[in-house]
Structures are given as structure tokens and as C-alpha cells.
Amino acid sequence: MARGQGVSRADVASAAGVSPTTVSLVLNGRADEKRVSKETQERVRDAAMRLRYVPNSAARAMVGKRHLTVGVVTRQPPNTLHLPIFEYFAVGAVEEAARRQHTVKILPPVTDPDSYDVYGVLRDAHVDGIVVHNLGWLAQAVADWRMPVVYAGPGEEHDELPVDRIGVVTTDEQGGMRSAARYLADDGHRAVGVVGGAVRPQGPPVGRLQAFIDEFAQCNAGVSHYIDPGFWTWSPEDGYRATRELIDAHPDITAMQAGTDWMAIGAMRALVETGRRIPDDVAVVGFGDFPVSAFLNPPLTTVTWPLRDLGVKAVEMLLAQLEDEPAGLGAVVLPTELVVRGSTGYAEHRRDLDTARRTVEPEQVSD
Length: 367
What we know:
Keywords: DNA-binding, Transcription, Transcription regulation
Pfam families: LacI, Peripla_BP_3
Helix content: 40-55%
Protein name: LacI family transcriptional regulator
Domain HTH lacI-type: 7-64
CATH class of the largest domain: Alpha Beta
Largest sheet: 6 strands, parallel
Strand content: 15-25%
GO molecular function, one term: DNA-binding transcription factor activity
Shape: elongated
């Protein structure tokens, strides 16, 4: 499983016309201390950039018996989503690294390939490998730079990644949402609202919401009404706004699937404000199983999202790569499950039907 030979320090030295020692001094920030000329420093950096050289700090760590440093980079600043997604993931990554006496370095977030000099930052960060959160294209690029890398995030983003060179760990978001769709269909719901963000502005629903919509249709249960409150909109405010729009357009819905638990919180407020009882009039299902969900009134039925475990597994796979173990590559899918709580129940029309059936049952007559 060993990686192919990447660019070496000697290659950079040859391209820059200097010694390997000079390359180390420049790239380790000690050139001024050793009085290496500015012109030579620039020549070394240009050669390193041109050759996409990443210092092998893992080898240095093993020689010096120092702990390793794991770099973690995500798609965008965590606060832009108003969700603790990256935070839960990072906690798992940090805990697993610390358990093994290693360090995690959180790198600047990347919004797109032109956000900043990603390669330069990774090179200068002196990390032993990279965990890439929700950025399939960056995981591919890091692998091309011959650097150990693990992709962690939505399953639909890893389909094109070469798992013989990249470790991949995802969560079964779509499987969990299909379970939620079947559960609502089995409970007798026929008109279901779905609120959540899209893949891109004015685009289709994210994969897990599309899985819910498709599964509900496969159950021949009825109609799903999808409301998109906007690109990357997952907050309680977004859930509230989308739900008000949903019930104005489709007042007959008896159940709702929210894109996240946070959206479900806003949805529940909107339902109560419009005189609807939860779950008697409208059942509500979330996604994420965040700690607050069990303490809502009523407690929220939701699909688990093992974000902390995602961080743990990503670091575990990266360290396996650094040790040249087979477990560092390939694809791993973490399971999700539906957690049923008080926000869901039989659709009202089904409850009425069951009551009617019990009413007309003939009485047992004893001899």
C-alpha cells in the first residue's frame, strides 16, 4: 500500500542549484538565521512550489521520536453554517490524536480552490498528513502532492476519489433518511413537507433530503413538498421561515422532515404559532441527534449523525497510512439510525381509521 515516491528534498535542491541542507534551512524558516541570501531563499521556494514539494515531517518525527502533527482543514468557517458540524468532528479528531499522543493543527478553511495558496499553507504547516473535511477536490489534490490524506464528509462527494491512494470515511446519511421516510409512511402519513438547503443556489436538495423524497415516493405513501430556504441554510431561523412558507402553500401536511435538528427547532415553533399540535397534527423529524434534541418539547425524533466518530475514524485512518498499514486506505461508512421520540406519531386520519375499526368490531358473545 506504500505510496509512490514523491518529490524529495534533493530534487528541490537540484532544481534550485543549492544543497539539500539549504533547502531545509529555507523551508524550516531558519534561512535568515544562517544568513542565506534573499535571492537564494526565493529560488528555493520557487523550486519547491514548482515541484509541489511537501516536507516529510513524518520521517523527521520517527527519527527524532517526536509526536506527529495531523492537519485538519474544512470547507468554510464553522460559524457560517450556524451549526456545530465541524466542531463535533474536530472534537473527535483531537481526542483520537491526543489518545495516541499526537497533535491536531486546524488549518485555515477553504471555500474554493482560489481561496488562498492552499499548497503553500500545507507545505509551511509542517504537518505529517491531512484530514480533509467536506472537500473532495482538495483530498484529490493533496494525494497528487504525495501527502498522506483522508477525506471525511458526505458520501456523495467521494465517489470519484481514488481509494487506493486516499482514505475515505463517510456517514450513511442517506440510509438514515430513507429509514425516516419509511417510518413516516408506515405511520400513515400521506402529505409530507421537507425543508432544507440545496447542493447549490437554486439547485436540487442535498443528497440525504433527496434520499428521503425518493424513498417516500417508493413507499407509494403520497406526496413530498420540498421547500428550499436558500443555499447553505440550516439554522432555526431558516427552518422557521421555510415552514411558514410550507404550511401556507400546503396546509394539509401531516409530517415534516427537516434538514437538521436546528431547522426542526424553527419548524416546531412555526407549527405551534399556526395552531398545529406536535405530533397530533404534524409529526416532525430532524437530522443530527444533537444533544438539545432530546430536551425539546416534545423531544425530537431524529436521525443520528456520528460526527464525533467521523473525526475519530479519520485520524485513525490517517495514522494507519503514516504507519503504512492497509487500514489507512479504502472507504469506510459509519452507520446512522432513526431515534424515535415524542415529536412523531400516527397521522390523525390513520388514528381515526383505527378508532373506527375498533368501534365496528362485533362483540364477543359467550355461550
